[in-house]
Amino acid sequence: MTDAAQKGNLDSPRSNGGTQPASQSEDKVPFYELIRHLVDDFALLFRKELALAGSEVSHTVTDTGKAVPGLLSAVMVLNSGYLFLLAAATLGLGQVMELWMAALIVGAVVTVTGLIMVSAGKKKLAAASLKPERTINGVQKNMESQKGHA
After folding, report:
1. pTM score, two decimals?
2. Alpha-carbon distance 45 to 32, whole Å?
3. Pairing of strands 19-20, 12-13
4. How much is the CA Rg of the chain, to the nearest whole Å?
5. Is the Cα dihedral 16, 19, 25, 29 positive or negative?
6. Environment class of residue 56 by beta-carbon count within 10 Å: exposed (0-12), middle (13-18) or buried (19+)?
7. Residue 90 clears pLDDT 50, i.e. is over it
8. CA nearest to 38, candidates 145, 133, 146
């Protein structure tokens, strides 16, 4: 590589279509211009990262929305079967004790089981699962690279 290329003094295109060596006065860009370009580039990068985050969240929400109707149908069918199983358990337990006591025991067991399941479901639906991980990682990498250049 030549000395001019190492110093960033590469040929630049001219308005007449040809290339001429860059002059010394064009090489000396004021410091504030460099800072302005850096700020503009950073703002553009930030806007693009925000657009990526929005796209990622939108994609996640769309995929979730497509799965919901099938899941609700399955839950309704399972619920119907579950109700019949509970009725059978109550009637079976009613053979050895009073029917009201059998229904109370089965109802209590099912209620406790349901509360445990709801608690586990809430943990899975935490807001952290909707974070745009790729975008966050990209922004962190960009910030680290900017710190490295400063």
Report:
1. 0.41
2. 20
3. antiparallel
4. 33
5. positive
6. middle
7. yes
8. 146
Do 123 and 44 contact (CB within 8 A), yes or no? no
| pLDDT tens-digit map of 3-57 | 444 444 444 444 444 445 555 455 677 888 888 888 888 888 888 888 888 888 8
* Per-residue confidence (pLDDT) for residue 7, from 0 to 100: 46
- 3-state helix vs strand vs coil in the chain, percent to 5: 80, 5, 20
What is the C-alpha separation between 25 and 42, in angstroms, rounded? 27
Q: How far apart are CA 100 and CA 94, in angstroms?
A: 8
Instruction: Tell me the two tokens of residue 5.
Output: 């290329």
Distance between CA atoms of residues 37 and 30, nearest Å: 11
92: Cβ contacts below 8 Å, ≥ 6 apart = 102
87/81 Cα distance (integer angstroms): 10
Residues 6 or more apart whose CB falls under 8 angstroms from that of 105 comprise: 93
Q: What is the pLDDT of residue 128?
A: 57
Nearest to 62 by CA among 130, 118, 145, 147: 130
- pLDDT tens-digit series, residues 48-64: 888 888 888 888 878 77
E-strand stretches of 9-126: 12-13, 19-20
